[in-house]
Amino acid sequence: MRILVLGGDGFCGWPASLHLSERGHDVIIVDNFARRAADVELEVSSLTPIAPLGTRLAAWRELTGREIAFRRLNVAEDYHDLLELISSYRPDAIVHYAEQRAAPYSMKSSWHKRYTVANNIGATHNLLAAVVESGTDPHVVHLGTMGVYGYGTAGVRVPEGYLTVKMTGDDGRDVEQEILYPANPGSVYHLTKTQDALAFAYYNRNDGVRVTDLHQGIVWGTDTRETAIDERLINRFDYDGDYGTVLNRFVMQATIGHPLTVHGTGGQTRAFIHIRDSVRCIELAVENPPERGDRVRIFNQMTESHRLIDLAELISRLTGAEISFVDNPRNEASANELAVENRRLLDLGLEPITLEEGLLREIGDVAAKYVDRCDRDKIPCRSRWTRAHPGADRPATVYAT
Amino acid sequence: MRILVLGGDGFCGWPASLHLSERGHDVIIVDNFARRAADVELEVSSLTPIAPLGTRLAAWRELTGREIAFRRLNVAEDYHDLLELISSYRPDAIVHYAEQRAAPYSMKSSWHKRYTVANNIGATHNLLAAVVESGTDPHVVHLGTMGVYGYGTAGVRVPEGYLTVKMTGDDGRDVEQEILYPANPGSVYHLTKTQDALAFAYYNRNDGVRVTDLHQGIVWGTDTRETAIDERLINRFDYDGDYGTVLNRFVMQATIGHPLTVHGTGGQTRAFIHIRDSVRCIELAVENPPERGDRVRIFNQMTESHRLIDLAELISRLTGAEISFVDNPRNEASANELAVENRRLLDLGLEPITLEEGLLREIGDVAAKYVDRCDRDKIPCRSRWTRAHPGADRPATVYAT
Q1: Are the Cβ atoms of A79 and B110 closer than 8 angstroms?
Q2: Kind and range of the H or E element at A248?
Q3: Yes or no, beta carbons of B168 and A164 under 8 Å apart
Q4: How far is A188 from chain B (nearest CA, A)?
Q5: A153 falls in which pLDDT band (50, 70, 90)?
Q6: Suppose B194 and one of A9, A178, B183, B313 were both cysteines; which one would form an S-S bond, judging by CB atoms 3.0 to 4.6 Å apart?
């Protein structure tokens, strides 16, 4: 297949691009290096020494003989470049990672909120408008987040996107309908993903655009089979308070002798997926497209759920690291249950990599190897969800990020 | 009260500004003249000869002694100007009309889709971010649309924003929850209003921003008590295929001897409100703000529902005009039922002006007075909802605009 990967230089986009190329697909990466620019802004670097994209692509060609092309453009701004690319390349699939993906980053300031909204809504809508205007029929595969559901599930297992509900009709009888699971975002970043979902539903219904929306859990791990071949292919490892994800941060903290920073009580339950499963899910989604006329297909791209405190205690047991409870910067419930349906990717053949010591040690090995690159000052999360505001003195609700 | 009216030069914003001023409030209009610019683009004018805003404001001052101030800025782009205005003026209420408001305009081309998304999402999010950053606590009153609900109601009366549903819990028992009514937009314009609703819900929950979202029906009529005082205060009358609303278009068509253009079968049922009730609803919403800590308050700002064919037949009976059935440019159901709950504005004191011959004649009188300004070539709707697209060959669903 011909595949465009929008945001193909990022933490998930890069290993997915390599994996799709390795599977024999023709891949073009589109990126504007926004993620690398955020490193410059935040004065932090990936713990792993990621190579420039040109070096990455040359190494991949040298090592495998496979060619991945690259087009630098800003999907949220360069509409006509995007349209021209889709019209001429006529991709079978477009994997859409071209969004600002960190909740804490989206809450740092009004600029970060506005950038996240303009970039994410603009990128998704430009993509959909360009697909329609091009007259082509690519399958759009979007990276969403489990966070669109929120984490107040009222005892209902989180379904894959759609929820069957009963409402009372005018005649007093129950009417059953299937609806998009009610959105409940926990940050401006998550808000944009819920707004994306409405755009996908509309363009699917009005224009027949085929879409798979992948509601991904928190990604852990760093390397995939392909990125591990050569150091020039190495993937990002973010440990900072904005872009670092919780499990990688714990392992990193343990490695450098920093206490494990648990936000609040650690009673928050979250969904997880290993980076190798993440790229495998992209492969499964791309190679099994929806039919024409199908509604937006939604998969929960996660393999397991854990309470954050349980993860911290596991790492602590393995490494002897201390646990430090810090004020939760997020406006979220201190604890929640989470049960998630994820049959659809399993049915397509996903064999989950679940949490086990070997893989945690592997992350620790990566962290240890590059420990000298760590800036300890970047570890705390300095974004705050709320500020002094006359109306903001309510207690946090059961809704969470 | 101190009130900012964003988009205060438009069809609803202008009479609302006058009405709030007449009620003794201190009003500042914010506008970027986007609506007048669209007239230039579409090569059409309001049937009524609207005066420049400076002339309007001078006439209002001359006639009533009341001062309405004006700030030209683009709410979707000039964030810091907006922030400075909110921070210094410290409004009690901000009425937000600063959005592209025509469904056909939003569907004309990919540029129009992208403009509508960037403008509407940008304006709403800039407003919310600026309210939070300013540290002030204005009540945000947003003009939404009945179209966010869609028109496939499955026999359920459309509630005011929130719907009680039952879902099946993990233990097999029904769990009852109140959710935002599932969004079902019928155009890119309507899509932006459903995305707005998610932004309001998020900023209300996270930051305590007080919001009233008014889901307005199709507005008919032209003049309010205030705009009728002097011709320099006259309101817009749009009759063109993009910005003209259906009932005003029928009356206008009858007046000039043009057949009444019914899209499709005319079996579409829609909600309506007279322009005088629209401005009265703004007054009621502004003067009865929600409490701090209240969730987003949603009112259905409509007074009656009618099938379009019934309206055409009524006008035809009164005037002898012929009815012409034309292809429906919209991707919508050919017929639908619509029952709407609207108790909350009635409870605040709204006394509905419903469809009656006297008011229709009044519109006809306005149309007759300015008939020489009419460009008949601008009457048809030339926007099309769908184009040749491989996936777009499904029949239209029950969902409608």
Answers
A1: yes
A2: helix A246-256
A3: yes
A4: 8
A5: low
A6: B183
Q: In 10 A of CB B201, how many CB atoms?
A: 23
A interface test, pick of B121, B171, B387, B389 with most A CB neighbours within 10 Å = B389
- E strand or H helix at B177, and its extent? strand B174-180
> Mapped to the 3 state alphabet, what secondary structure does B40-107 carry?
HHHCCCCCCCCCCHHHHHHHHHHHHCCCEEEEECCCCCCHHHHHHHHHHHCCCEEEECCCCCCHHHHC
Angle CA B399–A139–A220, to nearest 5: 110
Is A331 in contact with B206 (Cβ distance < 8 A)?
A: yes
CB–CB contact A114 B130 (8 Å): no
- Please determine, for residue A30, whether its predicted confidence score (pLDDT) is greater than 90: yes
Residue corresponding to tokens 């630098």: A72
CA–CA separation, A232 and A223 (whole Å) = 12
Arithmetic mean of pLDDT, A358-385: 92
Q: Which residues of B touch A117 (CB under 8 A)?
A: 121-122, 125
Strands B297-301 and B210-216: parallel
Active site residue A145: yes
Per-residue pLDDT tens digits for B208-254 = 999 999 999 999 999 999 999 999 999 999 999 999 999 999 999 99
The alpha-carbon radius of gyration of chain A (Å, integer) is: 21
| Interface predicted TM-score (ipTM) of this complex, two decimals | 0.95
Candidates A75, A165, A194, partner chain B, best to mutate (most B CBs within 10 A): A165
Q: How many CB pairs under 8 A join A and B?
A: 185
Quote the pTM value. Answer: 0.95
**The token pair that represents A341 in the structure block:** 């349906």
Q: Compute φ and ψ for B108, nearest 5 degrees.
A: -65, -35
Task: Give the residue-averaged pLDDT of B150-157.
Answer: 78
How many CB atoms are closer than 10 A to CB A9?
25
Measure the CA–CA gap between B41 and B39, rounded to whole angstroms: 5
Subunit contact B202:A182, Cβ cutoff 8 A:
no
Mean of the per-residue pLDDT values of chain B: 93
* Candidate list A193, A222, A245, A303, residue with the active-site label: A193
Contact criterion met (CB below 8 Å) for A183 and A148: yes
**pLDDT at B278 > cutoff 70:** yes
Query: Would you name the residues of B annotated as active-site residues?
Result: 145, 189, 193
Asked if B126 and B306 touch (Cβ cutoff 8 Å), the reply is no
CA distance A215 to A192: 13
Pick the residue from chain A with its C-alpha nearest to B209.
A391
Instruction: Identify the three-state secondary structure at position B4.
Output: strand
